């Protein structure tokens, strides 16, 4: 079971709450939730590793990753403005700790469909 640590905030930003849910889905390997919330033309760049384009390729990658459930995730902050959002934190997996930052671009200013993700991750 994945331990999730998220700071409590005022909770009045739907987009911020969604980004929290999206990150929890990654930590717990909830592939269906993740795939449901990306556009058909999604572009996911894992800087220093690879770039994935299109929902079909994205879906294949997410299904590969869902087997690697995190032991613990701490979400330090979520920032949203207009069509953009970012989240950063730490994730513990397989005895290692990683710091991450993801930058998201939504298809529209309203709604929960992501069209671009830029991911940065380092071992700490």
From TrEMBL:
<dbReference type="InterPro" id="IPR032710">
    <property type="entry name" value="NTF2-like_dom_sf"/>
</dbReference>
<feature type="domain" description="SnoaL-like">
    <location>
        <begin position="20"/>
        <end position="114"/>
    </location>
</feature>
<protein>
    <submittedName>
        <fullName>Nuclear transport factor 2 family protein</fullName>
    </submittedName>
</protein>
<dbReference type="InterPro" id="IPR037401">
    <property type="entry name" value="SnoaL-like"/>
</dbReference>
<dbReference type="Pfam" id="PF12680">
    <property type="entry name" value="SnoaL_2"/>
</dbReference>
